[in-house]
Amino acid sequence: MRFMLLFSRQGKLRLQKWYMATLMQIVLARKPKMCSFLEWRDLKIVYKRYASLYFCCAIEEQDNELITLEVIHRFVELLDKYFGSVCELDIIFNFEKAYFILDEFLMGGEIQDTSKKSVLKAIEQSDLLQESNHSGIILFSH
Amino acid sequence: MPAVSKGDGMRGLAVFISDIRNCKSKEAEIKRINKELANIRSKFKGDKLLFIFLLGHDIDFGHMEAVNLLSSNKYTEKQIGYLFISVLVNSNSELIRLINNAIKNDLSSRNPTFMCLALHCIANVGSREMAEAFASEIPRILVAGDTMDSVKQSAALCLLRLYKTSPDLVLMGEWTSRVVHLLNDQHMGVVTAAISLITCLSQKNPMSSRPCVFSLQIVSSASTDLQDYTYYFVPAPWLSCKLLRLLQCRLVECLETILNKAQEPPKSKKVQHSNAKNAILFEAISLIIHYDSEPNLLVRACNQLGQFLQHRETNLRYLALESMCTLASSEFSHEAVKTHIETVINALKTERDVSVRQRAADLLYAMCDRSNAKQIVAEMLSYLETADYSIREEMVLKVAILAEKYAVDYSWYVDTILNLIRIAGDYVSEEVWYRVIQIVINRDDVQGYAAKTVFEALQAPACHENMVKVGGYILGEFGNLIAGDPRSSPLVQFNLLHSKFHLCSVPTRALLLSAYIKFINLFPETKVTIQEVLRCDSQIRNSDVELQQRAVEYLKLSSIASTDVLATVLEEMPPFPERESSILAKLKKKKGPGAVSVTELDDSKREAGELNGGGERAAETASTPSPSADLLGIRSSAPMSAAPAAAGSLLVDVFSEVGPAAPAAAAAAVNNDVNPILLFLVTFKLALSLSRFVCKNNGVLFENQLLQIGIKSEYRQNLGRMYLFYGNKTSVQFASFSTTRLCSLTLCPQLNVQSKPVEPLVEGGAQIQQVLNIECLTDFSDAPLLNIKFRYGGALQNLTLKLPVTINKFFQPTEMASQDFFQRWKQLSQPQQEAQKIFKANHGMDTEVIKAKLLGLGSALLDNVDPNPENYVCAGVIQTKGQQVGCLLRLEPNAQAQMYRLTLRCSKESVSKRLCELLSEQF
User: What positions does the domain AP complex mu/sigma subunit occupy (chain A) (predicted)?
Assistant: First the structure.
């Protein structure tokens, strides 16, 4: 996988991984019943809309489209499990968490672990670590 | 904006995000961001900076602070630092050295959380500098026994990223085998992460695929519960996909290895050695063909087989020919196979074993295309002369198919088929000679050549009977094209044909008799000679009833019918409806290794389309024609033996079109049963035509000596009712009187015609009535047919008429003023909505007659619309079940030139066209 983008129906970028792309407009212009796959430059785009958010992956020619669609779904499930009925606002306000979850799930464009339990366990662990750091998120002070 | 309180950074971020979201305009957002940037400059906030970056604003500061965070011992600080760096920091940033240092520390920290953060960062940045720094370290972490599973997963994918960006720096050699064993890991997460790495590595590094197959077995067997790794009841779908992909790559590798090995010198002279090796090779090649997606492998396979074609071992030559046959059908290897044509032709000529020759013939057939068809067909023809009896029929079919399929030049096609008949006449099935006649009749550019060639072929002292059939048929149709030459004058042609007569079987003789009667029409000077022949006892008293009947009837016809009637009856055959060649089906039935593939069949359908000079495909193409129907272009109600039907067809088609005497006469009677008696009984009052009923609804539709059919019809909206009156003009009863409506396949969904059966008996002088209910579903161009059958004095009478149902019958007149008319006229301005025809007046240009006709058409005739009072304009709406089609008409007469210009504009293109056709025949 070359990149993954999350953007809203208004065309606002919510999450990006690996590459910035001008792809949003192409995907937004597509009608609901259209196919989830499209060719874009030398890549294949796999996208899916969840409520107001588009999840969009770019994969290479020999990659499997259907399984990529399920990569997206598994990622949404992970977000959902973590945030509890995830909505766009969760991703806006906790974008760094979304990144951490994505990192645990995908790495360098390849699947690291597909188990919901394993991924969420890793995130929970890092949350625990965070809470033990009382300094909150003021990261640097002069 | 609330002040950002120290020590509550998380809330600070949330507040900031809310503020941004509340910004009403881009300016407000920029203002808020600049304010925050100033704030962050004084107190570094990595998270907020990131958010600003994601909004699409450039962040050109804070990088150093983020790098410093990496060295923090606090998890949150380290985490945000890594996130910042992997999203914001350019891979060639000068900070990379500092970053690398921090990563190095974390990698060796033995703290799995820190190690994972570091590995994620490497994978996300993936720069060359990072590869240089860590390419040797990561494999060690990956395979170390004490590494935690989560770290292993990250390490595997991190390594993959580096391998992709800088393959030269990742030296896997010694690690590969240990990495492969990650597939055996108990933890499915590790297997999932490792498979991506292994798939990539396997492209360059030889490795065992056993763990891969093993894992696939685990994953695909339903017995194992994969717990968390089961996704919606599918066990580890991602892993399965990856494993299968890996096996595909491995398969290609294996096949390549096998092809490579075939090139190595043999390790033993024993035949067992080479057999065993080649057994594997052929299996591999058949897998390559089956796989049919690797052009490289297919071409290599073809080259390997090419070597075997000249091997001294017959077995290998045989197998190579056989395998190449399948290779020829792959688009990737077709060209490669063609390069071996000379070798294959040589094999066909010189192989001692008939089964090898058979394979060579199959291969030639399979590799044939437009570029080499002439050569291959010529070789196959010359082989036919000496071919084994067992394969001759199949060879004949193949030659016939190739000749037709790849004919560009039809004289070549005719030559080929005639040669085929000459060389292997006994093996030429009916389908083959039917086909050549069909093609000659459908292509007028080849008819003269065909006549000349058959004439020459018939000169041979011993002529195959099939040649006589083709000769009889073609000379009967097109003998006139060569009659100018004294060497092939009409009498010479006739004498030549008749010299074969006594040597032929009954069906051929029947065909020749039909050819003779056609001669009488083509060449009146032969009439006396031919009548004499028909009159002689051996014909008119022939013990075969068919021959006798023909002789009697033809003799009678030639003596009582006028020249015009003869010309009409014996007119040239109209083109056959285009159909798929039945030869292919026949070859397919024969099966065998060289049988035709489905694609070839499709191919030939397409090519057959070209062959018959385009035109609309006959509606009934879809149904499988019986062999005789295929040639005849008629659908016989009862199956009959092919030959007499073929002969009869010479006469049949005169009814399907009407000769020059009645140009538009469309009340075409098609005689389905081949009974020449009808020729006398169905007289030729065919001038009664469809076009006569365009502007009127009542009248006599058909009349002959036996039967008169009157018609009365009324229409409203899209519905119509037609009364048919069948009058028996004789004093004898008509028995088994029945009518059948025939709608072509195109017409069926357009027009719905219902009727009740009629009385089966019509007494002499009596009249019976039939009512047809008609519903127009959508616009149409064909006319429905009515088939009428009855027995008159024992002879079955059969005729088919076109019913005068035309689209204009469903007109509703529309009155409108001049202004409206021209406004609508302009609205229908697309070029395809308009149909126009300029034509010569066929009748007087009397105003009242024209007006009456236009009124009869069904539309409203509008006065005072056209500025030129000479012109006529009409408006109306055609009512169909599905839609209403608005139609405007303008007829401009030019009395001086005796011409009309007719223009139609309709909201539907097909209606404009059809109305224009119909109307232009009316004036």
Answer: 1-128
Chain B, residues 16-75, CB within 8 A of chain A, namely 17, 21, 42-47, 50-51, 54, 56, 65, 68-69, 74-75
Report how far residue A38's alpha carbon sits from residue B32's, in angstroms, rounded to the nearest whole number.
38
Partner A contacted by B160 (CB < 8 A): yes
Please spell the DSSP secondary structure of B169-186, one letter per residue: T---HHHHHHHHGGGG-S
B193/A62 CB distance under 8 A? no
- For residue A3, give the chain B residue with the closest CA: B124
Q: Do B150 and A122 touch (CB under 8 A)?
A: yes
CB of A81 within 8 Å of any CB in chain B?
no
Query: Do B535 and B572 meet the contact criterion of CB atoms below 8 Å apart?
Result: no
**Contact call for residues B746 and B783 (beta carbons, < 8 A):** no
Determine the Cα–Cα distance for residues B867 and B819; give it in Å rounded to an integer. Answer: 11
| Cα distance between residue A76 and residue B134, in whole Å | 33
Q: Where does A3-135 sit in CATH, by number?
A: 3.30.450.60
- pLDDT for res B301: 92
CB contact under 8 A, B150 and A118: yes
Q: Is the pLDDT of residue B674 over 70?
A: no
pLDDT score, position B660: 32
CB B710 within 8 A of CB B699: yes
Please list the residues that pair with B702 across neighbouring strands: B709
Among all residues of chain A, which has the CA nearest to that of B244? A64
The minimal CB distance from B83 to the residues A99, A111, A122 is found for A99
Question: What is the mean predicted confidence (pLDDT) over B879-905?
Answer: 87
Is the CB of residue A128 less than 8 Å away from at least one CB of chain B?
no
The answer to whether B186 faces chain A, any CB pair under 8 Å, is: no
How do residues B214-237 score in pLDDT, each as one tens digit? Answer: 777 777 665 566 778 888 888 888
Q: What is the pTM of this model?
A: 0.51
Maximum distance among all alpha carbons in chain A? 55
Q: Which pLDDT tens digit goes with each residue over B362-381?
A: 999 999 999 999 999 999 99
Per CB-CB distance under 8 Å, the chain B contacts of A111 are 192-193, 196, 238
Say if B621 is an interface residue toward chain A (CB within 8 Å).
no
> How far is residue B404's CA from residue B408's CA, in Å, rounded to a whole number?
9
* pLDDT over threshold 50, residue B668: no
Is residue B135 over pLDDT 80?
Answer: yes
Share of chain B above pLDDT 90, in %: 12
* Mean of pLDDT values over B552-566: 85
State yes or no: pLDDT of B647 exceeds 70: no
Name the pLDDT band for B610 (thresholds 50, 70, 90). Answer: very low
Q: Does B444 reach chain A within 8 Å, measured CB to CB?
A: no
- Interface predicted TM-score (ipTM) of this complex, two decimals: 0.72
Q: Which residues contact B190 (CB under 8 A, 6 or more apart)?
A: B149, B152, B153, B156, B182
B12 marked as part of a ligand binding site = yes
Mean pLDDT of chain B: 78
Cβ atoms B725, B766 nearer than 8 A: no
Best interface-test mutation with B: which of A12, A106, A110, A130 has the largest number of B CBs within 10 A? A110
Look at B74 and B151; give whichever has higher pLDDT. Answer: B151
Q: How many C-beta atoms surround the C-beta of residue B100 within 10 A?
A: 20
Q: Which residues of B are less than 8 Å from A138 in CB distance?
A: 6-9, 43, 45
Q: What is the pLDDT of residues B457-484, one digit of tens each?
A: 999 888 899 999 999 999 999 998 998 8
B652: pLDDT strictly greater than 50: no
Running DSSP on this structure, what letter comes out for residue B689?
-
Residue B592's SS3 state is: coil
Residue B881 is assigned to a ligand binding site: no
Annotated binding residue at B11?
yes
Q: Among candidates B701, B681, B683, which has minimal Cα distance to B691?
A: B701
Other Cβ atoms less than 10 A from the Cβ of B302: the count is 27
